[in-house]
Amino acid sequence: MTLPRSFKDTIAEASGRTVNLIRAPINLVQKNFKRKRKKLLALEAFTKSATRMAGKEETVKLGRVHLMMQANTKYQKEFPLVLNLATEI
């Protein structure tokens, strides 16, 4: 999975470490693994927050999942917590 360089740089600056996003079919997660689905939703929140920090809209591909992320200030205060959840997947 390749992400725009600006997106990767934003994540690295915010976390101080490299973050690898998971690759999983969304239907498998939704049907069989509710716990993983919660983590996937946390990852979605994380990518929205990181994209907001980059100041642009990005497309993030998670396996067959295509999430269009837009700027959203809702996750600004939750960013550190969501970052931790995303890196633990």
Strand content: 5-15%
Shape: globular
Note the total helix count.
Answer: 4
- β-strand number: 2
Give the radius of gyration. 12 Å
Mean pLDDT: 49
Distance between the termini: 16 Å
Largest sheet: 2 strands, antiparallel
Structural class: mainly alpha
Helix content: 40-55%
Unreliable spans: 22-30, 56-89
The figure for the number of domains is: 1
- Give me the side-by-side strand order of the main sheet: 1-2
Order of helices and strands: HHHEEH
Structure description:
The chain is mainly alpha-helical. The chain has one domain (1-8, 30-89). It is built from 4 helices and 2 strands, in the order H-H-H-E-E-H. It has helices spanning 5-15, 26-32, 34-54, 79-87, and strands at residues 58-62, 65-69. Strands 1-2 form a two-stranded antiparallel sheet. Helix 1 (5-15) packs across helix 3 and helix 3 packs across helix 4 (79-87). The longest helix is centred in the middle third of the chain and has 21 residues, at 34-54.
